[in-house]
Amino acid sequence: MSKKTRVVVGLATCGIAAGGVSVMDELRREIKKRKLNVELAETGCIGYCFAEVLVEVEKAGMPKVTYGDITTKDVPELVETHLVQRKIWREKVLLIEGRKTAEADFLKRQKRIVLRNCGLIDPESMRDYMKKGGYEGLKKALTKMAPEEVRAEVLAAGLRGRGGAGFPTGQKWDFCARAEGADKYIVCNADEGDPGAFMDRSVLEGDPHAVIEGMIIGGYAIGATHGYIYCRAEYPLAVKRLRLAIREATRKRFLGKNILGSGYSLDIIVKEGAGAFVCGEETAMMASIEGSRGMPLPRPPFPANKGIWGMPTNINNVETFANVPWIIRNGARKYAAIGTGGSKGTKVFCLTGKVRRGGLAEVAMGTTLRDVIFGVGGGIKEGRNFKAVQIGGPSGGCLPAALLDTPVDYDSLPAAGAIMGSGGMVIVDDTTCMVDLAKYFLTFTQMESCGKCIPCRVGTKRMLEVLIRICEGRGVPGDIGLLERLAYDVKDASLCALGGTAPNPVLTTLRYFKDEYKAHIFDKKCPAGLCVDLVTFHIEPDKCTGCGVCVRNCPSDSITGEKKEPHVIDIETCIRCRECLRRCRFDAVYTV
Amino acid sequence: MTNSIEDIGKADVTVIIGSNTTEAHPIISMEVIKSVKAGRTRVIVIDPRNIMMTQFADIVLNQRPGTDVAVLNGMMSWIIKKGVYDRRFVKERTEGFEELKKAVEKYTPEYVEKISGVPAAKLKKAAELYAGAEKANILYAMGITQHITGTDNVMAVADLAMLCGFLGIPGGGVNPLRGQNNVQGACDMGALPEVYSGYQRVDNEDARRRMEYAWGVSLPDMPGLKTTEMVGAASRGEIRAMYVMGENPMVSDPDLKHARAAFKKLEFLVVQDIFMTETAELADVVLPGVTFAEKNGTFTNTERRVQRVQKAVEAPGQAREDWRIIRDIAKNMGYPMKHRDISDINKEISAVTGSYAGMPWETLDACGIQWPCPEIGHPGTPVLHVCEFTRGKGRFIPVEFREPAEKADKQYPLTLTTGRILTHFHTGSMTRRCAPLEHLAPRAEAEFSHEDAEKYGIGDGDLVELSTRRGKVQVAARVTERMNPGVVFLPFHYAESPANVLTSVALDPVCKIPEFKVSAVRVKKKRGVRS
Amino acid sequence: MPEELRVTIDGKRCSGRRGQTILEVAEENGIWIPTLCYDPRMAPYGACRLCLVEVEGARALMPACHAEITPDMVVRTENKRINSIRRTVIELLLSDHPVDCMTCESAGSCRLQDLAYNYGVKESSFKGETHSYHLLDDNPLIERDLDKCILCGRCVRICEEVVGAGVYGFVARGFDSIVSTPYDHPLEESPCLFCGQCVSTCPVGALTSKLSKGKGRPWELKQTDTVCPYCGVGCTLTLWTRDNEVVNVTAPVDKGVNRGNLCIKGRFGWQYISSSERLKYPMIRGKDGKLRKATWEKAISTVAERLTEIVKENGPDAVCGLASARCTNEENYLFQKFMRAVVGTNNVDHCARL
User: Which of A85, A222, A460, A509 is within CB 3.0–4.6 Å of A434 for a Cys-Cys bond?
Assistant: First the structure.
């Protein structure tokens, strides 16, 4: 069997951002120029976001090779070496199928259910999806199972909401199925907005049919009459691929009237959000779908009873839906065999920050933080030390090194003060100031507060102001108490989860890194040397070679010194821009 | 109203016909809107104009002014044809169904479309929505009554409600919205030519005897003249003197030129009011009365609720409470009225008026009591006709469509309809003396549809002259999507551009109400806003 | 009738109906729960978080304005935790609120002022950025001071849910959220109907009536409940008077057919009462055709004499009378009695048809 040579470029947003489209164009030109018989295709995100642009080459008689960090300049050489000379171009190899490479660990340590097709299929090809068993779950559910059986299966699988709260999906479906209403809505929450989180986007861009299939099965299970995918408008590629997938599924009669002759009908509309983080909250999302300003409502009534236009509504996250076809196809037992007692299946995390291999990591529930960060992620960049990991985005918590052996599941993380959240993992090293980090996350939640309830609207603002003044060296004794008081009251009194979890970064950094706060407030020092108002820059005479790089780059002319003599920084005029620190090749600049 | 205001929002379907509720009865409008917004109620608006309520309506029927009977008959015809009327109610509580059925049969939606311009399909939908409701109410106002077919219109409204069994239930009913604070009370109190208080007819021997006994005089036995008839009688010289208390017919009467001439002809005119109104200016004697804030008493609202009016400030100058003035004139004419205060009058009312017997002034509070309230301690009656109608069974009174007195023609190609705007009240004597309100609505504006504006070359703000067979006025034009082609609207609050110079004295034969809502009119642009 | 439910609030056994909220049942039973964003005229909103109460068995604190009672529910309206939250909320509001109660129109009728008093909040522990907007004075009736706005959304909701005009909406996010009109246009260029419902529901001094500005503190004014003089709905009004002058009109939320709602005329159309154009003395038309001031004796006797004369000459039916849909029942009764019993004619009517 002579397989056609196939070159696939990762063209999810991460790939595009890294220049994937130009690489693709260059490949096309190069292949045409050399008159090669090669099929050029695109795929979604495979997860190696740290090594974009990714190009995968399949050629008969050779193992499948994935090249990383490809630029347009690399294209001629890649084509020449691999496609013409039939040799592996060692320089940019990331993975070789069946062989151990430095980066193979990244995938090997993962358990891919949600990302089962990501980076493997052409997301714009329904045929690709179906070749991988796509829509088999749907066929099974709609033709062989009653809606209550589908719900029971999902319940037995132990699937819990991947949007953050972790509510058992089967139970949620039961509530909605039992609620009465002329219409029922099934909604996919694709309003992913946490800084550093992109797992939903990767699924939507890389395997849109998986989400749609999951939604149809869910819709059938609860008796939904209409479906919405609420996708943030900042994900244009996801929106485009979703719409395409819906068109294709409708053409194949997996959507629309009387699906597969089952008598069940469903339509799905993609509704683009307008960029409000709070619209990821269920009631705010429903308000937004109805055309109102996205502001949350108190619950009860729950959406299951009174949702969109007052009708029963079920909202699940992208990742939750993507699990569903797998569960139906492979059975609840197989799914429940993965994970821990209370948390079944897998969870996709986005590794970002100072981790060496940033990208998508889907691991079995119960895997320890250490395994995720060091095993999959390959540890900390530039050989620095791990300091903390922020899990669950801006509403999550910051865990220190001492808690690295915490398993990631719905019970252990909250016990440690963090949350599973949607799956963002921001890894920080010892150059990060924890007060500054808390400030960063609070800046985000404060900006995204909808303004409805007072604790969130004003409370987070006042907390942020305290953090700012601590970072600027204007902290006063009592600020920690003030922060704690505010944090607990905002947490307990806020209307929705945005405000309810906004204090988490502050509370966890206070819990695990209180000394840093104290150093800022009482000693007017930033231990990480990051808070500009609290550091002074100095040159170690022993290390300084007097090369003059710092002098030339100092914007405030604060560095003086003779050539080849140790230089001196005038801390009075220094504006603490860190330029000298960054430029010095001899590590002579230090902060106090 | 057969039902109470509190009850309005309980309906699943509310039909609003001939009522610009949002502007003329804003609080009723809020009740409806609240209910629509809460998802309880769906609204059908039947009105020649796209009044604000149409924004909240499921179905809007824009009929040609004066064709309400046709529209209502059309709805009934369709409801009967589809068999969706309330058979049980019709059988048990009404009589005359067969006659009604026969009479409305020919008003097929298609025929009605020809008469009224309401698309047949929309009419059917409206009929089905109304009949299909669990409880539906109808609200109407002067848009129903101020026609030569006013009585017919009311009958047709009542027939429709009875046909669907929406009487005697909460959230149902036929609810005329009364336009003035105490118009209900004035009627209840017998300020009408044919009845004493409590609707006891003057030509009823027993009633008259009772009143003669109570008042200690003999009383005339023939009904007197209605307002609209008084003007005619005055112009013929049959009426020589007139006593006007708190009214301003020189703005509110139809065909004002004619009315004014009649008033001028009076030998003796007494006007008792709070301002030097257009009518007071013609008076021989002007008596200063007081405002509601300066006196005690009761008002009866549109839902028959008798409520306590309480004095908050002293009257200016020598102005006197109106009842004292009447009492003093009576005394001077040799009939001693011995009332010392409101309470004394109130006791007399209770004694001679069955439905008001149970509510002395002292016991009323802000919430009041809805009559009938036959004895002290009775809770009042929020919903009328719960078990049976006043006469026993409800009688269907079929009515035929009749064209309005004046139809648009070549000479007067448009139809003028008059009414109120939100900011001002009636003849403007009060609201136009409130500076902020006057600032917001300082001048009369005739409303035109975009189509008519284009046709007659009128721009928003242009000065136009409206003329009918009776007179002409100059007003500013307002071009708005509220209007439909062929219809012009003009508010009647403005004495300086009085809408009633244009209106006609064509009267409903039964209740003598003038046809304010239909006059043939023509328009001429006088001055462009920029010229 | 909905099912009757028994609940316990602060140890007190109370009964309520299914569908009622904790707040409604508490109020009916004389138990006070603080609120800012609640107004019974609108759907509960749950934004101010002051009415959070503890419900036995519930994980989180629940907003009493929104949570419906359930059978045998046990509620605590106060404890250390709840009071701490309430204090914090009040302090947070005060941290971005001009504390100019000395000159604020709403002092004395301000919910925030009352709450600060109730919870003994003298000043906010939280200092920080404050807003400073322009005073919006773009129309003759309603003044908007956004600095004082606490974003409870009551104006937004009453205008949308009750009035249907939808003039106000929230703009921007977080700390910078503000209530605005479409495109920030002046009220007169918006769909505003000037009913002043927003003014009536504003719990602070952000929306005030310009007609009452500087006319007196609530405790200096006398209140009289009466009935509106305009259309036939018969709204209950409270006239606020001082020195024999009406200075404000409001409507009580808990009584009358209008339950606190009013329209532009009812709420703002009262200046005519003290108009200088009011008729202050009787007048008689002289031989020269001019109306001249007269004494009451002269005016009354002139009327009596002339009417008597005409009746004598042409019979009572040569006289007619128009009573008034604007006057009281008592006056109308007396008027028709006058026409019938004194003049002797049934020629009496009023403008019911006009």
Answer: A509
**In chain A, which segments carry CATH 1.20.1440.230?**
434-522
ipTM, interface predicted TM-score of the complex: 0.93
How would residue A2 be classed by pLDDT, with cut points 50, 70 and 90? Answer: low
Which one, of A232, A316, A314, A215, lies nearest residue A268 by Cα? A215
Domain of B422, in residue numbers: 414-526
Total domains, chain B: 2
CATH of range A126-336; options 3.40.30.10, 3.40.50.620, 3.30.360.10, 3.40.50.11540 = 3.40.50.11540
As a whole number of angstroms, the distance between CA A503 and CA A514 comes to 15
Partner residues linked to C75 by β-bridges: C9, C55
CA distance C235 to chain B (A): 8
Q: Which of B137, B153, B177 is the last residue of a domain?
A: B177
Q: Which range among A520-529, A532-541, B125-134, B364-373 shows the weakest confidence by mean pLDDT? A: B364-373
Fold of domain A536-591 = Alpha-Beta Plaits (3.30.70)
Structure-block tokens of residue B271 = 């006007």
- The pLDDT, as a whole number, for residue A44 is 85
- Verify whether the Cβ–Cβ distance A453 to C177 is below 8 Å: no
Position B307 in a domain: no
The pLDDT assigned to B261 comes to: 95
Can you name the residues that pair with A256 across neighbouring β-strands? A266
* Spatial separation of the C-alpha atoms in residues C125 and A463, rounded to whole Å: 12
The stretches in chain B having pLDDT less than 50 are 531
CA nearest A125: which of A271, A267, A249? A249
Cβ-defined contact of B183 to C163 (cutoff 8 Å)? no
Decide if B443 is inside a domain: yes
With beta carbons under 8 A apart, name residues in chain A contacting C173.
276, 447-451
Name every chain C residue with its beta carbon within 8 A of the beta carbon of A492: 52, 60-61, 81, 85
CB-nearest to C328 from B24, B299, B367 is B299
d(C-alpha C218, C-alpha C207), whole Å:
16
Measured distance CA(B115)–CA(B113) in Å, rounded:
5
Partnered with residue C283 across adjacent β-strands are B286, C293
- Expressed as residue numbers, the domain containing C254 is 215-278
Q: What's the CATH number of domain A5-102, 3.30.70.60, 3.40.1010.20, 3.40.50.11030, 3.40.30.10? A: 3.40.30.10
B48 domain-assigned: yes
* Angle A68-A70-A74 from CA coordinates, rounded to 5°: 135
Chain B nearest-CA distance from C60, in A, is 28
- The C-alpha atoms of residue A300 and residue A302 are separated, in whole angstroms, by 5
Best mutation target, C160, C331, C338, to test chain B (most B CBs within 10 A)? C331
pLDDT of residue C221: 96
Question: Is C46 in Cβ contact with A449 (below 8 Å)?
Answer: no
For the domain covering A346-429, report its CATH number: 3.10.20.600
Q: Which residues from C are below 8 Å from B339, CB to CB?
A: 334
**Distance in Å, alpha carbon of C223 to nearest chain B alpha carbon:** 8
What's the mean per-residue pLDDT of chain C? 95
Which chain C residue has the Cα nearest residue B203? C346
Q: Which of C85, C96, C153 sits opposite A492 (nearest CB)?
A: C85
- Is C166 in the A-facing interface, judged by CB distances under 8 Å? no
C24 located within any domain: yes
Structure tokens at B432: 């136009």
Mean pLDDT of A143-170: 93
**Nearest Cα residue in chain C from A500:** C60
**Does A570 or C2 have the greater pLDDT score?**
A570
- Asked if C326 lies within 8 A of B182 by C-beta distance, the reply is yes
Region C67-94 average pLDDT: 96
